[in-house]
Every structure is written in C-alpha cells, then in structure tokens.
Amino acid sequence: MSKIDDEVTFGSKFQKVGVWLAVAFFILSVIMVIRNHGGMTVFSPDTKVLTFAHWQLEDGFREGFEEAIKIYEKEKERQGVKVRVRQVAVPVRGYSQWFLTQLIGGEPADVLELTGNSDIHNQYFTPLSPFIGEKNPWNKGTPLENYSWRESFSDDMLAALDLSYSEFFGVCLFASTTRVYVNVDLYKKAVGTDKLPETVTQWLDTCEKMREYGLRHNRPIIPIGVRGFDKGTLGQLFSNYTSQLCSGLSDTGNDFGYGVAQGTLFRQINDGELDKEVLLRPVELVTEIGQYFADGFPAIDLEQTKYLFFSGNVGYFLDGSWNAYSMVNNSPFPVKIINIPVLAKDHPLGKYSYGRITELGSGISGKFGIPKKTKHFDLALDFLRFITSYKINQLTMVEHCKWLSSLKKVKYTGLMEALEPITNTPNTAVATPFNTGVYGTRKTLQRLENIIIANPPNPKEAFWNDFLSVRNFLIDEINENNLGVMRTLWSMDGTRSALAFSEWTGDVSPADIQLSRMRGAINLEGIVSRYRAAKNNETLVHELGRLKEYNENGN
C-alpha cells in the first residue's frame, strides 16, 4: 500500500508541474502575441504601432532594420508623431502559410514582404499606383531628391509591376547578381598561382588541377560546389550560358518586335531558318562544367554546400550576391568573388559566344506591400518610402547586409564592387527556350541533371530526344496557362473600359482624372503584354506539334 501511495503522490506532483508549465507557456504565448500586435503600448494610447514582417533571416538584414527603425521612430517623434515599429522575421519555410493566415485573419502586419500570386495581392493589398509618381520626401537632400518614387529605382519599378492587374502592389528593396566565390587558399595550393580565371577554359583547367590536388593529398576536393537539391546552380549556369551563346537571337524579333518569342524560335527550326544546334550548345557546355560537381550533387542543398565550402573542401561556389556577406565573413580562409567565367575564343564553343550579358535592371526583388487591412495606411506608406529612400536603403542593404540596393546612383566599395551588375556590354539576356512553363522548366533542369550524371557521348542529342518525348505534357501545360492568360486579358480589357468611362460620370476631380488616365496607361501596357503572351503560347503549341514531323525527317 505504501508503494502505491508513493506512486500516486509522485504522479500527482508530476501532474501539477505539467499544469504549471502549461499555464506558464500560455501566458508567455499571450504576451508574445500581444507584443507582436503592438498591444504593449496600452500605457501610451497615443502611440501608433506598425508591424514590419519578412522572411529574410540572412546576416545583417534584421540588424540593419533595427537600426533603421530607431532612426525612423526618432524622426517621427521629432515631427510630433509617436510611433513604434515591430520587426517580425518568419523562417521562409513557414512564411507562405503565416502570410496567408495573417491576411485571412484580418489583422496582418502593416508592411509585409509579398509572396503568393497576383490574385492574392489584388485581393488583400493596397494598390500603390496613385503614389509612385510622387517624390519620396525621405530623399530630400540626396541625389534622388528630384526623382519621383518610381524613377528612384534602378529599373523604374518594372520588377514591381503586376502585369496581370497592371498595378503596383509593392516596391522592391534590393537587387541581386550571381557570382562565384573562390577559396583562395585551396586555389593557390592546387593551381600554383593567385591569378583567378576569367574564361571558361581557364576555369575548367583550374577545376582539373583542384581535382588532381585532392587525389594527390587524399582529400575529398570538390572543384565546383553546387546547390543541387533545388537545382539552383544548374538553373544559373544554363541561363547564363544560354544568354552568352544565344543573345544574337534577340535580333530575329517576333510579331511584336520585343525580345525573343519561344514560338518564333521553334518555327524557325521547323522552317529550316535556324539550326536546333544553336539552342543546344549551352547543354554541351553545362554538361562539361558539370563534370566538376560533387558525386551525388543532386542531393546536396545550399546549407550543405556552404558547410563543405567553409570546411575547405570546395574550390568554387556559385550563388547569389545575397550570400556574399556570410560566405566571406564565415570562411576561415580568404574568399574572393569573381564573375561567372565568360565563354571566350579559347574554348571550342567560344566562336559562337557573344560575351558577357548586361545585368542592368535585372535581379531586383524583395517586394514589400501594404495590406488593405492596415490600421495606419498613411504611416505604413510613409515607412515604406522611408526604407526605400536613398540613405536608409544603403544603410540596411549595403552597409549591413552587403547586398545590392534597388535604387539608382548608389556607389559601392570594397567587397561590393565585385557584386555590381555588369553594364558595359550591349548584349541582353535571352530566356531559355526550353523553359515553357513550370513543368517545362522543372523537366529542363532534371534533364540537364541526368545528362551530367550519365555524361553521354552526345549530350545535345540526349537532351533533344528527351525534350521531344515530353512534348504532349508541355503542350497541355501551355494550353492550360493560356486559358489563364486569356481570362486575365478579358478582365483587363473590362478595367480599361471602366477607366475610360470614369471621366464622364458624375463630379470627378482633376486629380482623379489624372489618376484614372495613369491607371489606363499602365493597364494598356499590361494588355499588350498579355496579348503578346497569349499569341506566343498559341504559336508555341503549334510549332511544338510540328517538331514531330521535323524529327521524323531525320533532322
């Protein structure tokens, strides 16, 4: 009986501990929820609270915005406005769910990093078109003082334009480029020089020397570390060298005289105006480069590759400029940053190369918007302008994150100079013609991955045959996408009519007329873009069908 009583007493005590832990956890949760929603300002009812939320957990981002927030709060206090800004960082893997929960729940953060599709943005976010033509008051006394808010961005805010709704639901904070990070210690030991490669041939030669160095010293050296799990590196390489080898195709034009249309390219192949080899040369080059990836590279993700790099076993690592700070800061050896090597005449494919491609205006991202449910729209808009102002954007993005700014006239020094966009070339990027949609893009990368692993005698033929084998799936996806494009086009056409008619209804102010005309102009840009996309999709479906006949004729 005593033993049973002891067990009951012990169980009772354990249950009490559990109850108290549950109560404590509940109280802590309530406090954190209240804090994140600004509820801690009950002792200062005249203080407005803004919540600034994002998924950027990279080094320097949160620290930079903590400093910026302090400056903003002091400046607003000087203006007689009491405001407190809460920064909420959510891991990227859970951000999409959290983002939708915030919006559907009706009490979202006041300034949110955008994710999701155009329909979500249109339903839940405030259109910013009425404000982008105004000057940013926080740019006073800077080189951008006389620029409109839209003109202050290096791409004139084109990356922020939602083509589906001809609307700006957010603005972008930063830009990015793709670069190669080099383990200088390993490079010098393996290659015997500190002169870094500039051309593809030089790059491949140093990779071979690194491999030989690893064999001589019984070290598991990986010449080129890659993001294999998400196929990020494959996408970067294939895109880069497709542009270097095919930039001239932009001169062929299309029905709209703008860029290269995939349907036009395949029509030219079917009609004998273009040799399919032109589109397949990047496959041959990327397969050659891929022989210096790690064994089993498809299973290696970003963090594993960074770990291997930091451990000294990777010579080169390709990734975006957003990782520059952590790559340089966290490596126990010197790291240098170079451009992706150019395909030059010292390589067999070099005679077809157009050289480096301009990066001007590309890579602009980090889009932030204001939900319709914000309680303090004017203040949220003011804060959004503040963080995209000349001085503050450089403080947060350049000084703290070591990222590129999304704004014009920004000067970079030291490490940042290697990340600056390439602009001293007239050659423009060309979209990979085999990326016909979500499924098509995924299959392209899988196909490249399989060819690198198998390393067949003729990688171009293997790629082409596999591409032909999935044409029916590609055509189905394109047709389905086109239905969505046409629905959007019809909706936009209705909007255009409504905007045109709005000037003649009731008492309309000059400001409203001006806004309506601006919206109409943006809407017309979107209509042309959607019509161009629909026309290209129809041509692409037709020409993909003709490729069967082309292949059966022995081409």
Number of helices: 17
Residue runs with pLDDT of under 50 for 5 or more positions: 30-43
How many whole angstroms does the radius of gyration measure?
27 Å
Largest sheet report: 6 strands, mixed
The gross shape turns out to be globular
C-alpha termini separation: 92 Å
Strand content: 5-15%
Mean pLDDT, as a whole number?
87
Tally of separate domains: 4
Topology, number of strands: 12
The CATH architecture name of the largest domain reads 3-Layer(aba) Sandwich
Secondary-structure element sequence? HEHEHEHEEEEHHEHHHHEHEEHHEHHHH
CATH names the topology of the largest domain as D-Maltodextrin-Binding Protein, domain 2
CATH secondary-structure class of the largest domain: Alpha Beta
Structural class from helices and strands? alpha/beta
Query: What's the CATH superfamily of the largest domain, by name?
Result: Periplasmic binding protein-like II
Helical content stands at 40-55%
Sheet with the most strands: spatial strand order: 2-1-3-11-6-12
Verbal overview:
The protein is of the alpha/beta class. The chain folds into 4 domains: 1-36; 39-167 and 369-404, D-Maltodextrin-Binding Protein, domain 2 (3-Layer(aba) Sandwich); 178-352, Periplasmic binding protein-like II (D-Maltodextrin-Binding Protein, domain 2, 3-Layer(aba) Sandwich); 470-552. Helix content is 50%, strand content 10%. The chain has helices at 2-36, 61-78, 92-105, 118-124, 184-191, 200-216, 232-246, 262-270, 277-290, 302-310, 324-330, 377-387, 390-400, 438-454, 459-469, 471-502, 510-552; strands spanning 48-54, 83-89, 111-113, 161-162, 167-168, 171-175, 178-183, 222-225, 314-320, 335-338, 364-369, 404-405. The protein has a 6-stranded mixed beta sheet. Strands 8-9-7-10 form a 4-stranded mixed beta sheet. A two-stranded antiparallel sheet has the order 4-5. Helix 2 (61-78) links the parallel strand 1 (48-54) and strand 2 (83-89). Helix 8 (262-270) packs parallel to helix 17 (510-552), helix 9 packs across helix 15 and helix 16 (471-502) runs antiparallel to helix 17 (510-552). The longest helix has 43 residues, at 510-552. 37% of the residues are buried.
